[in-house]
Amino acid sequence: MTSQSFFTRTTPVEFAGADSRDPLAFRFYDKDRKVMGKRMEDHLRFSVAYWHSFTWPGGDPFGGETFNRPWMHGGEALDLAKQKAEVAFETFRLLDVPFFAFHDVDVAPEGASLEESNDNLKVITDIFAGKMESAKVRLLWGTANLFSNRRYMAGAATNPDPDVFAYAVGQVKAAIDATHRLGGANYVCWGGREGYETLLNTDMKREYDQLGRFMSMLVDYKHKIGFAGPILIEPKPKEPTKHQYDYDVATVYAFLQKYDLTKDVKLNIEQNHAILAGHSFDHEVKLAFANGIFGSLDINRGDDLLGWDTDQFAMDVKEMALVFHEMLKHGGFTTGGLNFDAKIRRQSIDPDDLLIAHVASMDACARGLLAAEAMLKDEALAGPLAARYAGWDGAEAKAMLAGKMTFEQIAEKALSLNPQPKSGKQEMLEGIVNRYV
Amino acid sequence: MTSQSFFTRTTPVEFAGADSRDPLAFRFYDKDRKVMGKRMEDHLRFSVAYWHSFTWPGGDPFGGETFNRPWMHGGEALDLAKQKAEVAFETFRLLDVPFFAFHDVDVAPEGASLEESNDNLKVITDIFAGKMESAKVRLLWGTANLFSNRRYMAGAATNPDPDVFAYAVGQVKAAIDATHRLGGANYVCWGGREGYETLLNTDMKREYDQLGRFMSMLVDYKHKIGFAGPILIEPKPKEPTKHQYDYDVATVYAFLQKYDLTKDVKLNIEQNHAILAGHSFDHEVKLAFANGIFGSLDINRGDDLLGWDTDQFAMDVKEMALVFHEMLKHGGFTTGGLNFDAKIRRQSIDPDDLLIAHVASMDACARGLLAAEAMLKDEALAGPLAARYAGWDGAEAKAMLAGKMTFEQIAEKALSLNPQPKSGKQEMLEGIVNRYV
Amino acid sequence: MTSQSFFTRTTPVEFAGADSRDPLAFRFYDKDRKVMGKRMEDHLRFSVAYWHSFTWPGGDPFGGETFNRPWMHGGEALDLAKQKAEVAFETFRLLDVPFFAFHDVDVAPEGASLEESNDNLKVITDIFAGKMESAKVRLLWGTANLFSNRRYMAGAATNPDPDVFAYAVGQVKAAIDATHRLGGANYVCWGGREGYETLLNTDMKREYDQLGRFMSMLVDYKHKIGFAGPILIEPKPKEPTKHQYDYDVATVYAFLQKYDLTKDVKLNIEQNHAILAGHSFDHEVKLAFANGIFGSLDINRGDDLLGWDTDQFAMDVKEMALVFHEMLKHGGFTTGGLNFDAKIRRQSIDPDDLLIAHVASMDACARGLLAAEAMLKDEALAGPLAARYAGWDGAEAKAMLAGKMTFEQIAEKALSLNPQPKSGKQEMLEGIVNRYV
Amino acid sequence: MTSQSFFTRTTPVEFAGADSRDPLAFRFYDKDRKVMGKRMEDHLRFSVAYWHSFTWPGGDPFGGETFNRPWMHGGEALDLAKQKAEVAFETFRLLDVPFFAFHDVDVAPEGASLEESNDNLKVITDIFAGKMESAKVRLLWGTANLFSNRRYMAGAATNPDPDVFAYAVGQVKAAIDATHRLGGANYVCWGGREGYETLLNTDMKREYDQLGRFMSMLVDYKHKIGFAGPILIEPKPKEPTKHQYDYDVATVYAFLQKYDLTKDVKLNIEQNHAILAGHSFDHEVKLAFANGIFGSLDINRGDDLLGWDTDQFAMDVKEMALVFHEMLKHGGFTTGGLNFDAKIRRQSIDPDDLLIAHVASMDACARGLLAAEAMLKDEALAGPLAARYAGWDGAEAKAMLAGKMTFEQIAEKALSLNPQPKSGKQEMLEGIVNRYV
């Protein structure tokens, strides 16, 4: 197999306008179009995820491989990893995306020892570095997989066995070194096994302390090697573990404050993880901004009726418009981007399905971005919002909030008040949003 | 109606031993029995909740009153409130509980103005004070209802209207004053409307800041008047509001840290709120202890298959045994207690159902406490737990955790490690717990 | 109060085109526009629901009235009911809808006896009949409220007390008589209390038999009086009751078959009830059509993150496009319609909010209908669907399905087969749908 | 490896009494103890499941193998299958269970063709037959795995490709032949892929018809070969598929009626599948009995806070007591049994964990059975239940239910009624149940 022959197409997907019916053309994603003064590509900063798109064979808990990718069978591990890299970079080129992201074990085979694994990773890092010289694509982030190998079955940083903790340090060091070497814009930690299956065998306080220590050391190391990007934690409430310590944005914020990490660690927020935690995507993004810990987005969607991570390609324009509206209000991404932590369905076994899925979702994102821009320009939401809270602009209201009145003074003042409720205008606002999407 | 005639029984419910078949006798709750050196009554610190038991008429979103309590009809508001108080104190006496708890509006009618409401509350406070002189029962906590009146429909402290904020201050001042006067052991805040129905009309950051200010002032005021107990926040994720800011223990912990409130504010944790937030009761309690913010418990149960607050009487011995096991490890309650934030089903319309429900649940709690004591004595769970983490007792492991080794040093050390996973023994531990309950 | 003064506007809402920014103008709902040969109005058959819009005061389980409607206070019950009717019919006129729907107790006050209640209903029925002579609006359906009064707390047809069963018969007879008198197109049964709170006190088999009997008698009676429309059952899985017997479409279909009711009883399907049961709206509609029991729709939306019936106004164009696509394939409604079983949020206290909400949702429905029409014309979904199953058009495949081959014959034939999976093309189809909405 | 060396123990687990602390001794399961006149073993009819216990390597969606069973590595497929069989039968012996259950692919490797797969199955069937001659263990049921192989990714009987349908027939024929040869008491169908991932590519009506045809042919074949046991369908709402056609008991009952299968097909009900569908285990069992379609039980438990199938070992005595109470009322199992469709946690990697888990759960079941017996003897639940419905024993009530009164006659009678609600006594009943568990 050559990478060229995996897909039928050889030229990058292009913008063809809203009337196009070609599933391999963009209808809205017009990378050079300016949105609030910046190119669409620079706003959306799309990233293809190595794991779902090139490493996952299509299995689920009740069934095996469906994709039968040529690079997953019948060869020496490193050779197969190189073949996979060929297809991956060809995909990046065809989708014309500016970024990709990977776990160590997605790109390089695990060896019989940590040293061998590290060596494999270095081999692949060199290959990637070479390819990236001539390609457009850059690295949005790297990360280490601390959850698939059985050694991590009871956690990595939070493992009851200190040797596993140490092993995880060794693996993460190699992963952030590789990320640094490749100019990664961020380094991500997803603690899929940092949690518990049962409280009967778990010392939660101790495990949190282990995790705090681990993250503190990683931050120190990042500074030491001059890695400029932030460390990102990706919240997820559960799955694979019954309960994960990085449950949601609020929980991670509590953790970052406790272990004094708010300055160096930001959040990588995912739609599917948000809804598994009982929150809307918009909520999680707004909460992260409110607390100064917004970092990046894993763009995908979960199924509202299912209780596990389906990681489907994001297709809901309205949902994304609201998230991008918040982001644009804050000036958009700095180091972050829209990483497609999304997998084609296991029945989507045609090679082109991989491209079609990305194209359809990139287009939905672009529509969301355009809708957000229009809402912002019109102050469609911001106007009514400011009006709703206008009372707090008064001098006495400001004084209350600034701590310049005591509880008793306010209570005294309240004796003469009889405040009347005002309409929240929810349906009107919903109708307004519908105008834009 | 006299209070005596509401129930058929006139003498307090008594301990009758495990073989009793009388639904109005305790089978396990033997108040003077010593558990780890303390009387059962002093461990469990049961409290009857005024709202569910005396103020709720039995309605639900699709149906009206079912209980037809005599004190809810056909009289002048304050007179009815006094009648209700008669029945309430008679209930406390018959159940032989050491505590009760109330919202301002449960006990005293709202007036046409804040001043009138405050006056009504004072009248009832005097009556309660008089009754409490001769009664055994004390006040576990008081609170203000900042969610039922339409003025609070968009929040109290987090309202877009500063006058509502001020009004809430006025109401809370009166409520904590009343609580203080009655010797309340705690003061509770449940922010049922502190949240949002839609993010389209909500400035979350601003509302969090309002809530932070409100709580800070309340803490200041508490100190000023010499109220010795803690302020307790009761987390709940949703209902009535779509999203509530005091979502769960972790979220409140983030809030307390951000607004520097961890010293004075603790948590009042409820089983039903825990499961609505996606957590086990045990999880929430352990997390609160791990972060030094455990305060008190609202004891009830939710329905695992329903998505709203059913506030049923707690009957699951195993669930409570695990919670009490954690509590006993930390020495049990200080100011907190087991408040029955539980309501009889709306079909339980016989007056005696109110007593029967409390008795059955008190008994289930007592069984849970005895099971917890036995597990602790046997080190049934603590033993295996210590063994599981024993590796961290080693010198090098301690050094890692204490920050005495750098990331690179640990990574270097890891090159020679090949840690093997050990069984988590979950089923064995589950079998052990089954021995005790 | 006069009905005219309740709303600020006096002329019906009109179509103003997609660019309109007026929340009281239609942007897509153009009632005379032809869609697949039929007027939009005749396709969508919008109906305003009396209960949410005129009878619900804005309360929720934690708070009281917010709307303070003039017709809910300070008058004699029948007079208030007449005032309410004035506003209701004015609303129908302003929204220019062809239908409305009601429960008996929404429109007429309950009396002290069944006879008095029936008399009240007759008074109001006469008033309605008078108003309908001159108004455009017709009755989509009537129904009886068998869940709010405490007598029904343990069910109506499924009550353990046969007198309650009889009383329910009496009430339903009056309600279907009124519906018939007013030319109602359907009669609806929603069994909100036909279910159980706990299996500990429930004989499920017996209760199902009671329900079967009740429905059979109702069907007989309908025929006897010449009521031409179908009886509709509205499935809902839970709330108010823990478990309701009419759980979802499949469950009701099982019931209808068992009690031989499939011919006369159809389904009234609601989005919010669908998702509470774990199904998409589209699924429930498709399943009803597949089994020949589709009747009508309650159009609203639930919150995917909440576990109770929020009954919000439907705003999701894509969701409705898929439902209408199915409906159009089957020729659209016969007796059914789109009944707004939707309530404005309790914070939407401005009178105009009631109009704005309907307008925004009617527009979203109209967009959905237009999208469905376009997809059908293009065979955007139907084309790929037919291709996917084309293999079943073969002679042998048809023979298998028609029962013309035995199990052994097919098994024998299978020995020479090695079928290869084909892509399900899910992302491509999702991208296609996004083109239309 | 020899089977003897896999476990440390060589003698069957024995009953040691309630005070035993040995995790490899029964505290309650005393197989010869008589319960309502029948031996415990004959009541509970425990079955070990081949797939979870011997075929699953410990993986989950985010991690690979943890168990490293010797029979899963490094040998020729049939040899490994034989090794596995050794350990399996040794497990049956050590647990002293009367039954086991299997899928075709659990026990025999899939070949390169259907013929080869069938041959492999025959080889293993012969081996099993040989072992079963001398062993105590019998076959509770066999089944075919129609979900793991990629050919079934879009369903088996409901596949869009008729060749897959045919292939499934071929596979099921071999599986029921093997089951018949081994004297299986039932044959099970679990339609894990009979459903859809998206309605966009699904013709639900057609797929239901395919499934109906498939089941009808299977029933015909069963009669033809003289297989005496029932065909059992195992309902599950979702996972792996987004929606499965055999959603829950009610849905399957609708299906069985439509395709005229109620006589020959019964249900195999699982706790974890019940709660995933939003029902209690008890509900599903009661509903199956109410409709005459109860067959067998998959005994396990799900996690109430997780949205996927955790298949944990059942440990909740109360839940099982209520299920067994219903079962005992109906005389207990006929062909069915308690099949442990349960898997040890992936961290439970000690070989003995497999035994410990079964022992702990068998004991919990035994306690549940004893509690059910005691409740039945005391009429603890049956007494109050009969009293609650006693009104229906009256002559007129019976006449109403028997269809001997018309709707109008009952409505007329209702005019003189004013039924008063009676307490549902839920808390009292919950307290009563707590006495027994």
From TrEMBL, chains A, B, C, D:
Enzyme nomenclature, EC number: 5.3.1.5
Compartment annotation: Cytoplasm
Catalytic reaction list: alpha-D-xylose = alpha-D-xylulofuranose
Quaternary structure (record): Homotetramer.
Gene Ontology terms describing biological process: D-xylose metabolic process
GO cellular component, one term: cytoplasm
Organism, scientific name: Jiella avicenniae
Top-rank EC class of the record's enzyme: isomerase
Swiss-Prot/TrEMBL keywords: Carbohydrate metabolism, Cytoplasm, Isomerase, Magnesium, Metal-binding, Xylose metabolism
Amino acids binding Mg(2+) 1: E234, E270, D298, D341
GO MF, any single term: magnesium ion binding
Family as reported in the entry's similarity comment: Belongs to the xylose isomerase family.
Broad class of where this protein is predominantly found: cytoplasm
Name used for this protein in its record: Xylose isomerase
RNA-binding in keyword set: no
InterPro entries: Xyl_isomerase-like_sf, Xylose_isom_bac, Xylose_isomerase
Binding site for Mg(2+) 2: E270, H273, D309, D311
Cofactor binding remark: Binds 2 magnesium ions per subunit.
Catalytic site positions: H103, D106
Cofactor: Mg(2+)
